[in-house]
């Protein structure tokens, strides 16, 4: 799982449409529609940092439903909307977005660095060296800003990554 990821903030109509999807094809069609808009004010590109970020925000594993809420919902938390192995789409409800944003506020570079050092990342494709940590840390300010803005706007959030 080392593909490039993007978080999208959703308005109420798009959020309802995602929750109404009944199959993977419909979810991916809607993801494609949201991606085509590529609204820079309502997205956060994570590139490949999402893997290490999720591990740091949870218990070191790359899994759904691991770690403690609300940091567990930053990347792979919430409701998985896609069941296939080729794509991940997770939905975080607006009320959860507020809690995620608040939980991210005290997280800083030192916190991430300490998490890297304290956790064992099973099956991690990165190196865990200083360069890898710095790469991951570089995405933290944008991630925090994204969730802060999404919370202020009352938006839901979807995490998307193809594998």
Give a written overview of the molecule.
This protein is of the alpha+beta class and 163 residues long. The protein has helices at residues 12-20, 24-37, 49-57, 94-104, 109-118, 130-137, 140-153, and strands at residues 5-10, 43-47, 79-80, 87-92, 156-162. The chain has one domain: YfbM-like super family (Hypothetical protein yfbM fold, 3-Layer(aba) Sandwich), CATH 3.40.1760. Helix content is 46%, strand content 16%. It is globular and about 40 Å long.
Gist?
This protein has 163 residues and is an alpha+beta fold. The protein has helices spanning 12-20, 24-37, 49-57, 94-104, 109-118, 130-137, 140-153, and strands at residues 5-10, 43-47, 79-80, 87-92, 156-162.
